[in-house]
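SIR2-like domain-containing protein, pasting as requested.
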Amino acid sequence: MTDITEQLTKLLGDNAGAPFLFVGSGFSRRYIGLPQWDELLASFCGEIREFGYYASQANNDLPSAASLMAKDFNEVWWNSENYAASRASNKAIVREYASALKVEIAAYLTRQSYTRVPDESLARELAAIPRLNVDGIITTNWDIFLEELFPDYKVFIGQEELLFSNPQSVAEIYKIHGCASQPNSLVLTQEDYDRFEAKNAYLAAKLITIFIEHPVIFMGYSLGDKNIQSIISSIVSCLSQDKLDKFGRNLIFLQRCSQNEPGGFQPSMMAIGETNLNITVIKTNDFTEVFDAIETTKRKIPSRILRYCKEQMYDLVRDTESHGKLAVVDIDQIENKDDIEFVVGVGVAGLHEKITQKGYQGISLDEVFDDILAPSSKFNSDDLLSGVYPSLLRRPNKYIPVYRYLRQSGIDSITALKSSKHGSIEGLIRRSQSGRLAGYQGQYDRICVGKSTQEIIDLVTPQKASILLQFQNDDQIDMDALHTFLIANREKFNSENSTYSSYFRKLACLFDRLKFGFPLTE
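Structure tokens follow.
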């Protein structure tokens, strides 16, 4: 364990809350090679003046330069044949002079491949990031790289959505400057920044608990970044003197070493107006030293589950009406907040002991997944459907394979199912039909269209393949390649081994449907 890892592990261990990441443009530049902001703007100047003209007109203030550039770009966008297809698709959302430029920037960012890693050392860092024990991420980035690294995290886009929602500060991403998935949300021009700054005090009030109760690790920013200075200044103005020291101790800036500069864990001072904050700066060219420390503070309960529970707790307190039912489920079967119905009690530990003493009846879901992938089933299908599936149906997990056992019981149509004693299973089948995540359609279209199942598996990581393979049409899927892939990645079905476990289970259900399924129309 390196000195940086040891010291950061101790600092994080002294804090009750898991860390938050505050991620800037340097993060996406480091791992996927996205351009700097001025380079990005310059790439859209092909049919207008050179970017240097706009930058000089704005005294090199980039938001002001973007404002000037957006006005000229708007004229070109509405008239140039080069943007005819984009106009046809996006003219309904081009509502102000900067919208056209935002639409094209967003399109560029969503076209980027997030599978490219520059070198082996960065590949190791990147592989470690999805395993990090962080409660949430705040970012000014517009790209969707973070959503891909943390697919189970709930995303809040823009200042407005964060201010008028009920974030739980667990397993969430706050995209405070907007997102490429919603072009008009981008904070790009001087007018956008003015609107953002006008509400900065409200944003600071929303974030203040995070900054006081959690270590916040800044990645991809310099200490002098105007965005960070502004947000921290707004938070400082809300704090009493006795809170400032704790606030400063929670600020950790991760920076690369310059040439011949020694790395290390360094106390530093950050001047915010007349206030000096004692912060920590970590300088290293190997960020795994930092990631190893973050990963050591493991949770017993995954962050995504904590967020779902906190949301449900809020609803129970806010709403005095009784809705839903009480159920006992395995925690790794929880997939989304709509599936959770629970009661929190104090002083009822004896209930857990009674459940433990009684034990669980029947076959586990893991055994079902193993059996679906086996050459032949080891179960009596009728007994399994009668004795095990009634309890599985009560689980919130939407993705439970069943077609194999229906076929083996002589049920080969929806009509036969409805008239059988297993008719209740129809609901399970219908809720597990599609595992596609709409946010990945663009990435599939960019890098996977025309490729075979095996080519997609070879192109991306197994985790990413578990998502992208589900966009293939049924007749395009190579069943042998899919089966081999699922067998090779069987350990990733377990949430303790993979944050992508639900996607592998969805893919196994797709395999079950394609191999043993039948149409759901009568």
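Note for the archive: The first strand starts at residue 20 and ends at 23.
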